[in-house]
Design a protein that fits this description.
This is Carboxypeptidase. The protein has 25 helices and 23 strands. It is of the alpha+beta class.
C-alpha cells in the first residue's frame, strides 16, 4: 500500500504559525496580502488558495433554515410543525446569561479575548495531535465552529454533497479555511452576534435538533430565556456528541449527567458561577430536571387536526405562490420558518370529529367510513373535517387508521371522488330555473327515457356537448319502483323523486345541468375538471348523483346556496408569513356571484319544505330549537349515503357514509351500524342524523339562535307561477306510472291524481316512521331501493369510482335514493 503523502510536521507548523501570527498581529488585511507567499512554501498547499474564497456565504443568523409552524384560524392553536432541521431562531437577548456562559465555558473560554482564532488552542491542539501523537485535538474557536456549521448548512441547503464534504473533512486545509473566515467574521460582527449565531445553528440533540430555543423546549419545556444553571449546562454539554449526550435517551443519562457536571465545573473555574452553585447543581440528578417534550414534524401527530393539516400541506405544495416547483415549495415549508395561519375553526373541527365518531365509531364492525366537511359561505374558508379514522401511515390491518384524506380531491391527498345520490338534485332545480322554467310546472314523467332526449340545445353560443343515443334509460323512484305522474319539480325535490329529475333533464338538456353544477362549484375529484369540460361524462344518471365528487366540493356547492349564489374557491389559509415578517400571497377564494339570488332563494325554499312537510325526504335532518333547516339527503345504490345542507351565511356541511375501499363488496343494506340493524340504510337514516348532530352543536357553540337565517328561502313568484297544465316532451313514448298522491305546495294548484299509495311511501328518504326504530323499510323490499338501470356504454357513468378505483356502480346500473 503506497505511503500517504502529507506535508511534513515542520512545514505544516510553519504555515499555521505564519498564518496565526499574521491574524493576530496584522489583522485580516495583512494576512490576505501575504497569503500567497505563505502558501508558496509548499506546492502541496498551493491548491488550498481557491478554497479560501468566501463570496456568497451568508452568515446572517436570520437566514438559517427554520421550522415552519401551522396554526388554526385563531393564530395560536398549533396544528403541526414542518422542518428538515428542527430549529427556532431567537435573538441573543432571549437567551439566558447562564446558557451563554455555559457554551463559552465549554467550547471557547477565551472567546471574548481572541480575534476569531484562539492561538493557544491551535498550538495546544497542534502539539498534541502532530508532535505528541495523542488523540486528535480540535482547537477550534467558537467562531470557527460557527463558520463550519454555516458552511455545512449551506451545502445541505444547496444539495451540494461535495461542498458538504469539504466543509467537514478532517484536513489542515479545512482548518485554515475556517480560520480565515473566522477572522473575517470577527471584523464584521460583534462577539454577541457571533455567539447568537452559534447558539442558533449548533446541534443540541439527535434527530436534527438544532438551536438553543428548540433544545430548551425539547428537554425542559421552557424558553431559552428562562434556562437556569443546571439546564444550561445540560444543553451545552450535548454539542460534543449529540447522539451519545442527548438526555432524552434513557441509556444516555449517566453520560449526559457526567458531561453536564463537567460543564458546571468549567463554569465555576471560569468565574461564571460560585462554588456553592456548582456543587448544588452537580448533586442534582439529571432525570429530575428533565421535562421531555415529543418531537413532532408533519401532520401525523396533529391529532384531530391531522386531516386538515394534511390538506393545507398539499395546498402549499400545489400552489405556485410558494415556489415555481413542488420541490421548492417543500423546501420553503421545511426551511422557511413560515407562520401559517389556516382557516380551520377549532370548534367546527372538534364537533365534526365528534359527530363522525358518534355516528359510526372507528371500530364499528361495519367498517364504514363517515366523511364530513364544512365551509363558511361567501368566503371559501374551509372550517374543518370530520372522519372516524386516525391520520397515520395507514396500517392495512387497522381499520381505524388511514393515510388518505377522503374529504378532498385526489391532488390534495384524497381519492377519485364519490357518487352522492340525491344530494345533487337542488342543482338540477337551479338549472331548471336558469332555463326560465317554473318549479310548479306539472311534468309528464315515466320510467324509461331515451338518452337522446337529454341532448343539449344550442344556447349562449355553445356547441352541443351531448347528443345521446336511441337507447333507453330505465329510471324509477326509490322504494316504489315506479313514478309519480304528473309531478312538479318542486315536489320532485321535496320527495326526492328520480323520475321527475329525469323529466327535467329531458326538457332542458344536460348542458344546462352541467353548467349549473359548474356555477355552484362542482369539479371532478380526480381530474379536477368541471363537468361541462368533459362531455364524455355527460349522461342522464348524473342528475341523480352518479358523479365523481369529494365531500369538500359538495360542501362548497351547498355553501353557494347558503351565500345567495356567491361561489368561492375553497381556501385553507388566511395568512402565511416568512420569518422576517414578510407576507406570502396565499391562494384566493375568488368569490363571485355565480347564481341569481332569486333562484337561490327559491331553491332554499324547496329545501326547507323537504325537511318540514309530511312527505319530505329530509325530515331526519330537521334542526332543533325551531331553527329553519335547509338540507337534502341522498343515497347511491347500496353504497353511499349522504346529506348536505347549511345555515344561511354561517356554515355549509356535507356528510357521506359508506365503505370507501370496497363499496360494492360491502353494501349498506341488511347490516348493523353502531349497534342498529336495518334492512335498508339511506341518507335519511344515517347521514342526516350526523349532519343534524353537528349543525345543532355548532349553532349552539357559536350562539346562532333560531332566528339566524329565518328570513332565508323566500320563493320568487316568477319561478313558482304555473298555468297548471302538464308539460310533455314531444315524441316520447311514456312508460307505466305508479298510483300515488300528488299534493300541491300551497302556492299553485297541480293536476293531481289519486291512488292507493300514500305520499310517504314515494319519498324514499324516510319512507315510514319505522325507520327510527331500526326496522327494515317497506314491507316486502329487501333493500328498500329499486334499481335504476342505465344503458351500457351510453348513460352509465364514465369513470365513477371509489378511492381504490373500484367501480362505484354495478354493471350498467345506477340508483339514487333519498
Amino acid at each position: 500500500m503506497p505511503k500517504k503523502k502529507s506535508p511534513t510536521v515542520a512545514r505544516v507548523l510553519s504555515l499555521i504559525m505564519a498564518y496565526v501570527t499574521l491574524c493576530v498581529a496584522g489583522g485580516i488585511a495583512a494576512s490576505v496580502l501575504l497569503m500567497p507567499a505563505v502558501f508558496a512554501a509548499n506546492k502541496a498547499t498551493q491548491a488550498l488558495v481557491p478554497s479560501l474564497q468566501v463570496e456568497g456565504i451568508d452568515f446572517d443568523v436570520t437566514s438559517l433554515p427554520q421550522k415552519s409552524i401551522m396554526y388554526a384560524s385563531d393564530g395560536t392553536t398549533k396544528m403541526g410543525e414542518f422542518y428538515e432541521d428542527n430549529r427556532i431562531v431567537v435573538p441573543i437577548k432571549n437567551v439566558s446569561k447562564y446558557m451563554r456562559w455555559a457554551v463559552v465555558a465549554r467550547e471557547d473560554k477565551r472567546f471574548f479575548d481572541h480575534a476569531g482564532v484562539d492561538v493557544q488552542g491551535v498550538m495546544r491542539a497542534f502539539v498534541k495531535t502532530y508532535v505528541l501523537k495523542q488523540d486528535e485535538q480540535g482547537g477550534s474557536s467558537l467562531t470557527q465552529q460557527y463558520v463550519k456549521n454555516v458552511l455545512i448548512t449551506k451545502a445541505e441547503s444547496d444539495n451540494d454533497p461535495i461542498a458538504r464534504y469539504h466543509a467537514s473533512e478532517g484536513t489542515v486545509a479545512r482548518k485554515i479555511r475556517e480560520m480565515l473566515i473566522a477572522v473575517q467574521m470577527e471584523q464584521k460582527y460583534s462577539k454577541l452576534e457571533i455567539l447568537q449565531g452559534y447558539l442558533n445553528i449548533a446541534q443540541f440533540g439527535r434527530n436534527r435538533l438544532y438551536g438553543v430555543e428548540t433544545a430548551a423546549r425539547r428537554y425542559f419545556n421552557v424558553s431559552a430565556k428562562d434556562l437556569n444553571i443546571v439546564q444550561s449546562a445540560t444543553i451545552a454539554a450535548i454539542t460534543k456528541n449529540p447522539e451519545k449526550f442527548d438526555p432524552s435517551v434513557e441509556a444516555n443519562l449517566p453520560t449526559a449527567q457526567k458531561q453536564r457536571n463537567t460543564v458546571l465545573q468549567l463554569m465555576y473555574e471560569q468565574g461564571y458561577i460560585t462554588k456553592a452553585e456548582c456543587t448544588q447543581a452537580q448533586k442534582t440528578p439529571i432525570q429530575d430536571t428533565l421535562n421531555i417534550q415529543p418531537l413532532t414534524t408533519g401532520c401525523q401527530n396533529a391529532g384531530d387536526y391531522a386531516f386538515f393539516c394534511a390538506y393545507v400541506t398539499q395546498r402549499i405544495l400545489n400552489s405556485s405562490e410558494f415556489g415555481k416547483t413542488k420541490e421548492a415549495r417543500l423546501q420553503l415549508l421545511k426551511e422557511g420558518g413560515l407562520s401559517i395561519v389556516t382557516t380551520l375553526d377549532v370548534d367546527a373541527n372538534s364537533l365534526l370529529m365528534k359527530a363522525a365518531r358518534d355516528t359510526v365509531p372507528p371500530t364499528d364492525p361495519s367498517g364504514f367510513e363517515i366523511m364530513m366537511a364544512s365551509v363558511k359561505p361567501g368566503t371559501g374558508e374551509v372550517l374543518g373535517f370530520g372522519i372516524n379514522r386516525t391520520y397515520t401511515g395507514g396500517d392495512a390491518t387497522d381499520q381505524t387508521q388511514t393515510s388518505m384524506n377522503y374529504m378532498v380531491d385526489a391532488e390534495d391527498g384524497g381519492g377519485a371522488g364519490f357518487p352522492v345520490g340525491s344530494t345533487i338534485k337542488p342543482f338540477n332545480m337551479v338549472a331548471w330555473m336558469e332555463a326560465g322554467r317554473s318549479i310548479n310546472e306539472n311534468l309528464q314523467t315515466t320510467t324509461s327515457y331515451a338518452t337522446s332526449e337529454f341532448a343539449c340545445e344550442n344556447y349562449n353560443g355553445k356547441m352541443q356537448n351531448y347528443s345521446g343515443t336511441t337507447e333507453l334509460w330505465p329510471v324509477t323512484n326509490a322504494l316504489t319502483n315506479g313514478t309519480v305522474n304528473p309531478e312538479s319539480p318542486f315536489l320532485g325535490l321535496v320527495r326526492s323523486h328520480n323520475t321527475t329529475q329525469a323529466s327535467m333533464g329531458a326538457i332542458i338538456g344536460l348542458c344546462r345541468v352541467a353548467d349549473a353544477y359548474t356555477q355552484a362549484g362542482y369539479h371532478d375529484a380526480s381530474s379536477l375538471k368541471t363537468i361541462d369540460q368533459v362531455p364524455a361524462t355527460y349522461n342522464p344518471a348524473m342528475m341523480i348523483g352518479s358523479v365523481n365528487v369529494s365531500p369538500l366540493t359538495m360542501a362548497n356547492m351547498y355553501a353557494t346556496l347558503a351565500a345567495d349564489g356567491v361561489e368561492c374557491t375553497p381556501i385553507a389559509m388566511k395568512k402565511v408569513t416568512r420569518m422576517n415578517g414578510e407576507e406570502i400571497s396565499v391562494p384566493k377564494a375568488n368569490c363571485h356571484q355565480a347564481i341569481d339570488k332569486e333562484i337561490v332563494q327559491t331553491v332554499a325554499y324547496a329545501l326547507n319544505q323537504g325537511t318540514i312537510r309530511s312527505d319530505g325526504a329530509g325530515q331526519y335532518a330537521k334542526l332543533d330549537s325551531g331553527r329553519k333547516t335547509f338540507a337534502k339527503t341522498g343515497t347511491n345504490e347500496t353504497m353511499y349515503m349522504a346529506t348536505g345542507g347549511f345555515i344561511p351565511k354561517q356554515i355549509a356541511t356535507f356528510v357521506l357514509v359508506g365503505d370507501a375501499q370496497a363499496p360494492i363488496q360491502n353494501p349498506v343494506a341488511n347490516i348493523a351500524i353502531n349497534g342498529t340493524y336495518r334492512g335498508y340504510w339511506d341518507g335519511g337514516t344515517i347521514a342526516a342524523p350526523a349532519w343534524k348532530e353537528f349543525m345543532d352543536a355548532y349553532a349552539d357553540k357559536k350562539g346562532l339562535g333560531k332566528d339566524v337565517g329565518n328570513d332565508y328561502g323566500t320563493p320568487v313568484a316568477k319561478y313558482t307561477t304555473s298555468s297548471g297544465s302538464v308539460t310533455t316532451i314531444q315524441g316520447r313514448t311514456l312508460g307505466t306510472y305508479s298510483n300515488t298522491s300528488n299534493s300541491n305546495n300551497g302556492t299553485t294548484n297541480s293536476n293531481g291524481t289519486t291512488g292507493n299509495n300514500s305520499s310517504s311511501n314515494s319519498t324514499g328518504g324516510n319512507s315510514t316512521q319505522s325507520n327510527q326504530s331500526g326496522q327494515s323499510n317497506q314491507s316486502g323490499q329487501s333493500n328498500g331501493q329499486s334499481s335504476t338501470q342505465s344503458n351500457s356504454g351510453t348513460s352509465s357513468q364514465q369513470g365513477t369510482s371509489n378511492q381504490q378505483s373500484s367501480n362505484s356502480q354495478q354493471s350498467g346500473t345506477t340508483n339514487s335514493g333519498q
